[in-house]
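Sanity check

After download, print the first record. It should look like this:
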Amino acid sequence: MFGVVGWIRLDSPAEAAEQLHRFTAHPVFKGVRHLIHDDPRGDFLDLPAVRESLALVAQHGLTVDIPDAFPRHLGSAVRLAREIPELTVVLDHLGKPPLADPDLMKLWSADFQALGQEPNTVAKLSGLHLPGVQYTADALRPLFESAVEAFGPERLMIGCDWPVSTMGAPYGRTLDVLLELVSTLSPPEQDAVLEETAIRTYGLAVTPLAEG
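Expected structure tokens:
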């Protein structure tokens, strides 16, 4: 059970269409992701060419992952979800909330809550090694509770952010903190965050274990 979220040229609809034609020939291709935080264009998601390409992504039944959205792109993600309701928008790393800055957190929270109001959105619990914040369950609990409130377990999924996460802590430590947070949910809700949301969002094929 696996899938690939890859890159296509979103700012060139013709090239994006050609890439989508090629890549969707492979059943494991499930979505697209552009490193918008490394792109100098702060309005990248609002560009007409990008919107046109993302409409094609939606037509193919694929998702778009948006990493490190705050502060430049979280509001754009809200507009994108509203204007292309057929597109599943996956917010990676909870949008990179500025937890150490209360004033900026107000701005993050407003857009984060607005995104959660859109039914075609999913948030990924990942990438939470944040500047100025201890990586512990207690420190991250307000973010986790905000995510559950905004999206619900049925639109929340766990992610490891490997190998980038290893810059903040070993893989095991990164995962243990997230699992500690998820353990506060009911068993069905835990199943959603740990597995079911990802299966549904990315259309992953589940292969039953062989009986021996």
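If your output differs, re-run the checksum step. Summary of this record's structure: The chain has one domain: 4-202.
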